[in-house]
Amino acid sequence: MRTKRLPYYECRQGIFEIDEFDCGSIFVVVGEERALVLDTGTGLGDLRWVIENKITDKPYDVVITHNHGDHIGGAGFFDTVWVHVNDMDWDNGKVLPKLDFRKRYARLISKREGKHYIYDVDRDIVEWEKTPEKKELKDGQVFDLGGRTVTIYHCPGHTPGQCVAIDDLTGTLLCSDACNNNLLLGKGDAKSDLEAIENAYKSLKRIWDMRDRYDEVYNFHHDYRGFGSPLAENVLPNIVECLKSLLEGTAEIKMVPDALSETGAEKKVAVYDNVQITYMGGDISKLC
Length: 288
Ligand SMILES: [Zn+2]
Fold this sequence. Notes:
Helix content is 22%, strand content 27%. The protein is an alpha/beta fold. The site of zinc ion has 5 residues, from loops.
């Protein structure tokens, strides 16, 4: 039987962060009538049981913020998921939600920080029960949960279909992988590297310009922040500045260890204060 011991914490009123043993964070926003689940992690353990038995007995929708394997890995344990059309093709990425990827990823994350977790990769990561039905998630889509609404915004950059969410009751931005101290940017559908950076800049500047609607930001891995704690306030504006410096050709480029490398390789990043940007579509230093 898969583990049911996924840690969770109510970080703001009715907003729960579920820790999938550092592989991913799953958020659940609970209203008076319904709940909204954001992402499904790598599919380690019985997430559905935790949601339905520990967090809420209300009906809920499941939103997939983007199509990476550490966010859709548990999608096959739910009937229906909402996902942006640009990220609907789950087999079109480097990171597939296949069993082999999910097990390898969990092992890598646990090795990375040398932590001990009470789970067994072979017992707790199993094949999907089904292929969920996909529904199209749209920019500006509002989930009315009763007493609170959660609005979805398309924010391409990390992936072409990346979405973020704002909870109006608490003023919380749930930004998934669209923003964090170590932003990974993809090329997506952009025709050039510069266009990819420009698209990401526009996306995140738009969300930053909505800042009167939120006062805390949570990304969907709790790297660079405590579990249940928000990102530092300057992370989003610093990422916007870092993208701007890339567009203006003034970015500072550095070599740093690649935390996701299985061979201990280094990678080139653009840095700005406490943030860094990795460009997965090409050589970031050529942009400067
Ligand atoms: Zn991702």
